[in-house]
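Cross-check.
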Amino acid sequence: MSTMKEAHIDTDTNVTLHDVPIPELLDPHQILINVVVAGCNPKDWKMPAGMLVTIGSCPNSGDDIAGDYPD
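Predicted model, tokenized:
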């Protein structure tokens, strides 16, 4: 099984890395991106720290990436 790295940020803004399975594409409108570079947007660490209560239920995180479409 192929794996990828996944970062988890806890409420103290500590980051731990985990090896997780690469997700399966179940919808024909989805794409898989081979991430080459990733950045940390302030919302990615402010949300777990409870500093962004207005978007606390927002699942949109970890989207500052650059990569390519795998062959």
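Residues 3-68 form one domain. The two ends are 18 Å apart (CA to CA). Passed to J.P. for a second look.
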